[in-house]
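Researcher: Batch entry, complex prediction.
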Amino acid sequence: AQRVTQPEKLLSVFKGAPVELKCNYSYSGSPELFWYVQYSRQRLQLLLRHISRESIKGFTADLNKGETSFHLKKPFAQEEDSAMYYCALSGQGDDKIIFGKGTRLHILP
Amino acid sequence: EPEVTQTPSHQVTQMGQEVILRCVPISNHLYFYWYRQILGQKVEFLVSFYNNEISEKSEIFDDQFSVERPDGSNFTLKIRSTKLEDSAMYFCASSETGQGNYEQYFGPGTRLTVT
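Model: C-alpha coordinates for the complex:
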Protein backbone atom coordinates (compact mmCIF):
# COMPACT_ATOMS: atom_id res chain seq x y z
CA ALA A 1 0.00 0.00 0.00
CA GLN A 2 1.16 3.53 -0.71
CA ARG A 3 1.42 5.52 2.47
CA VAL A 4 3.20 8.54 3.91
CA THR A 5 3.68 8.77 7.65
CA GLN A 6 4.55 11.92 9.56
CA PRO A 7 4.75 10.89 13.20
CA GLU A 8 4.67 14.38 14.71
CA LYS A 9 1.51 16.49 14.60
CA LEU A 10 3.25 19.43 16.21
CA LEU A 11 6.90 20.32 16.52
CA SER A 12 8.04 23.32 18.54
CA VAL A 13 11.59 24.54 18.05
CA PHE A 14 13.42 27.59 19.31
CA LYS A 15 14.60 30.15 16.78
CA GLY A 16 18.16 29.34 15.74
CA ALA A 17 17.87 25.67 16.69
CA PRO A 18 18.02 22.84 14.15
CA VAL A 19 14.80 21.49 12.69
CA GLU A 20 14.03 17.97 11.59
CA LEU A 21 10.58 16.99 10.38
CA LYS A 22 10.26 13.25 10.03
CA CYS A 23 8.68 11.44 7.11
CA ASN A 24 8.54 7.77 6.28
CA TYR A 25 6.89 6.24 3.28
CA SER A 26 5.64 2.94 2.02
CA TYR A 27 5.80 2.26 -1.70
CA SER A 28 6.83 -0.83 -3.61
CA GLY A 29 8.68 0.90 -6.44
CA SER A 30 10.69 4.10 -6.77
CA PRO A 31 8.49 7.02 -5.82
CA GLU A 32 9.10 10.69 -6.20
CA LEU A 33 9.11 12.40 -2.81
CA PHE A 34 8.04 15.95 -2.04
CA TRP A 35 7.69 18.38 0.81
CA TYR A 36 4.81 20.84 0.57
CA VAL A 37 4.34 23.79 2.92
CA GLN A 38 1.30 25.82 3.87
CA TYR A 39 1.95 29.12 5.61
CA SER A 40 -0.83 30.75 7.60
CA ARG A 41 -3.69 31.81 5.32
CA GLN A 42 -1.76 30.83 2.21
CA ARG A 43 -2.11 28.02 -0.28
CA LEU A 44 -0.30 24.72 -0.33
CA GLN A 45 2.97 25.12 -2.21
CA LEU A 46 5.86 22.90 -3.15
CA LEU A 47 8.90 23.38 -0.93
CA LEU A 48 11.22 20.82 -2.48
CA ARG A 49 11.38 17.43 -4.16
CA HIS A 50 14.04 14.80 -3.95
CA ILE A 51 14.68 14.62 -7.67
CA SER A 52 15.89 18.21 -7.88
CA ARG A 53 18.16 17.93 -4.84
CA GLU A 54 17.79 21.64 -4.17
CA SER A 55 17.95 23.56 -0.94
CA ILE A 56 14.98 25.87 -0.60
CA LYS A 57 14.81 28.49 2.18
CA GLY A 58 17.64 26.60 3.86
CA PHE A 59 15.69 23.32 3.95
CA THR A 60 17.08 20.06 2.61
CA ALA A 61 15.73 16.54 2.47
CA ASP A 62 17.59 13.36 1.65
CA LEU A 63 15.87 10.28 0.36
CA ASN A 64 16.99 7.21 2.31
CA LYS A 65 15.69 4.20 0.43
CA GLY A 66 16.97 1.76 3.02
CA GLU A 67 14.97 3.41 5.79
CA THR A 68 12.22 4.59 3.41
CA SER A 69 12.55 8.06 4.87
CA PHE A 70 12.61 11.60 3.53
CA HIS A 71 13.18 13.78 6.57
CA LEU A 72 13.18 17.56 6.17
CA LYS A 73 16.01 19.43 7.85
CA LYS A 74 17.16 22.95 8.43
CA PRO A 75 20.22 23.82 10.53
CA PHE A 76 18.91 27.07 12.01
CA ALA A 77 15.18 27.70 12.38
CA GLN A 78 13.72 31.11 11.61
CA GLU A 79 10.41 32.51 12.84
CA GLU A 80 9.06 32.66 9.29
CA ASP A 81 9.44 28.88 9.05
CA SER A 82 6.34 28.46 11.21
CA ALA A 83 3.87 26.62 8.98
CA MET A 84 2.22 23.30 8.22
CA TYR A 85 4.55 20.90 6.41
CA TYR A 86 3.32 17.95 4.38
CA CYS A 87 5.46 15.12 3.13
CA ALA A 88 4.10 13.54 -0.05
CA LEU A 89 4.87 10.98 -2.69
CA SER A 90 3.94 10.23 -6.24
CA GLY A 91 4.34 6.78 -7.71
CA GLN A 92 5.76 5.90 -11.10
CA GLY A 93 3.17 6.55 -13.75
CA ASP A 94 0.76 8.11 -11.27
CA ASP A 95 -0.87 11.50 -11.55
CA LYS A 96 -1.89 11.66 -7.92
CA ILE A 97 0.10 12.86 -4.97
CA ILE A 98 -0.30 11.00 -1.68
CA PHE A 99 0.08 13.24 1.34
CA GLY A 100 1.00 12.61 4.93
CA LYS A 101 -1.13 14.11 7.69
CA GLY A 102 1.24 17.01 8.11
CA THR A 103 3.37 18.43 10.89
CA ARG A 104 2.76 21.88 12.30
CA LEU A 105 6.12 23.55 12.90
CA HIS A 106 6.05 26.27 15.52
CA ILE A 107 9.18 28.36 15.88
CA LEU A 108 9.52 29.83 19.35
CA PRO A 109 11.18 33.25 19.74
CA GLU B 1 3.18 34.97 -11.06
CA PRO B 2 0.18 33.00 -12.40
CA GLU B 3 -1.92 31.23 -9.79
CA VAL B 4 -4.73 28.71 -9.63
CA THR B 5 -7.93 30.39 -8.50
CA GLN B 6 -11.02 28.82 -6.94
CA THR B 7 -14.56 30.05 -6.33
CA PRO B 8 -16.33 30.29 -4.02
CA SER B 9 -14.02 30.40 -1.04
CA HIS B 10 -16.80 29.03 1.19
CA GLN B 11 -19.96 27.20 0.17
CA VAL B 12 -22.72 26.16 2.53
CA THR B 13 -25.31 23.74 1.24
CA GLN B 14 -28.01 21.45 2.55
CA MET B 15 -27.69 17.70 2.43
CA GLY B 16 -28.98 16.32 -0.85
CA GLN B 17 -28.30 19.46 -2.83
CA GLU B 18 -25.99 19.67 -5.82
CA VAL B 19 -22.89 21.84 -5.63
CA ILE B 20 -20.42 22.95 -8.26
CA LEU B 21 -16.97 24.05 -7.23
CA ARG B 22 -15.06 26.11 -9.73
CA CYS B 23 -11.39 26.39 -10.53
CA VAL B 24 -9.34 28.32 -13.06
CA PRO B 25 -6.05 26.47 -13.60
CA ILE B 26 -2.86 28.17 -14.75
CA SER B 27 -3.35 28.93 -18.42
CA ASN B 28 -0.60 26.83 -20.04
CA HIS B 29 -1.15 23.81 -17.79
CA LEU B 30 -2.56 20.64 -19.26
CA TYR B 31 -3.26 18.48 -16.20
CA PHE B 32 -5.87 19.31 -13.60
CA TYR B 33 -6.64 17.77 -10.24
CA TRP B 34 -9.05 17.86 -7.36
CA TYR B 35 -8.09 16.99 -3.80
CA ARG B 36 -10.02 17.28 -0.57
CA GLN B 37 -9.10 17.62 3.09
CA ILE B 38 -11.62 16.73 5.75
CA LEU B 39 -10.96 18.73 8.92
CA GLY B 40 -8.11 17.19 10.88
CA GLN B 41 -7.29 14.64 8.20
CA LYS B 42 -4.85 14.38 5.35
CA VAL B 43 -5.15 15.88 1.90
CA GLU B 44 -6.66 13.17 -0.33
CA PHE B 45 -6.55 12.83 -4.09
CA LEU B 46 -9.92 12.71 -5.84
CA VAL B 47 -9.33 12.88 -9.57
CA SER B 48 -6.97 13.96 -12.33
CA PHE B 49 -8.06 15.23 -15.73
CA TYR B 50 -6.18 15.50 -18.99
CA ASN B 51 -7.20 16.02 -22.58
CA ASN B 52 -10.85 16.38 -21.61
CA GLU B 53 -11.10 13.11 -19.79
CA ILE B 54 -10.42 11.60 -16.40
CA SER B 55 -6.96 10.08 -16.32
CA GLU B 56 -7.03 8.75 -12.76
CA LYS B 57 -9.52 8.71 -9.90
CA SER B 58 -9.59 7.49 -6.33
CA GLU B 59 -12.12 5.31 -4.52
CA ILE B 60 -13.62 8.47 -3.03
CA PHE B 61 -14.56 9.72 -6.49
CA ASP B 62 -17.77 7.73 -6.88
CA ASP B 63 -20.82 8.33 -9.08
CA GLN B 64 -21.82 11.34 -6.98
CA PHE B 65 -18.81 13.23 -8.29
CA SER B 66 -18.09 14.51 -11.76
CA VAL B 67 -15.60 16.88 -13.34
CA GLU B 68 -15.82 19.02 -16.39
CA ARG B 69 -13.86 21.55 -18.36
CA PRO B 70 -16.81 23.48 -19.83
CA ASP B 71 -14.65 26.05 -21.60
CA GLY B 72 -11.01 26.87 -22.17
CA SER B 73 -10.42 28.20 -18.69
CA ASN B 74 -12.69 26.66 -16.04
CA PHE B 75 -12.42 23.26 -14.41
CA THR B 76 -15.34 22.24 -12.23
CA LEU B 77 -16.12 19.60 -9.63
CA LYS B 78 -19.78 18.70 -9.22
CA ILE B 79 -21.21 16.78 -6.30
CA ARG B 80 -24.69 15.62 -7.29
CA SER B 81 -26.31 14.98 -3.94
CA THR B 82 -24.20 16.18 -1.07
CA LYS B 83 -23.82 14.22 2.15
CA LEU B 84 -22.71 15.44 5.55
CA GLU B 85 -19.40 13.62 5.09
CA ASP B 86 -18.65 15.67 1.96
CA SER B 87 -17.91 18.63 4.23
CA ALA B 88 -14.25 19.38 3.59
CA MET B 89 -11.78 21.76 2.02
CA TYR B 90 -11.57 21.09 -1.71
CA PHE B 91 -8.36 21.99 -3.50
CA CYS B 92 -7.89 22.31 -7.23
CA ALA B 93 -4.41 21.94 -8.70
CA SER B 94 -2.82 22.07 -12.12
CA SER B 95 0.49 21.08 -13.67
CA GLU B 96 2.23 21.49 -17.01
CA THR B 97 2.59 17.76 -17.44
CA GLY B 98 1.60 14.68 -15.51
CA GLN B 99 3.42 11.62 -14.23
CA GLY B 100 6.94 12.13 -13.06
CA ASN B 101 8.98 15.29 -12.92
CA TYR B 102 6.29 17.96 -12.49
CA GLU B 103 4.99 20.39 -9.91
CA GLN B 104 1.34 20.64 -9.03
CA TYR B 105 0.23 24.18 -8.25
CA PHE B 106 -2.61 24.38 -5.77
CA GLY B 107 -5.47 26.80 -5.48
CA PRO B 108 -6.49 28.38 -2.16
CA GLY B 109 -9.33 25.91 -1.69
CA THR B 110 -13.10 26.00 -1.29
CA ARG B 111 -14.49 25.16 2.10
CA LEU B 112 -17.68 23.13 1.61
CA THR B 113 -20.02 22.84 4.56
CA VAL B 114 -22.96 20.46 4.23
CA THR B 115 -25.71 20.93 6.81
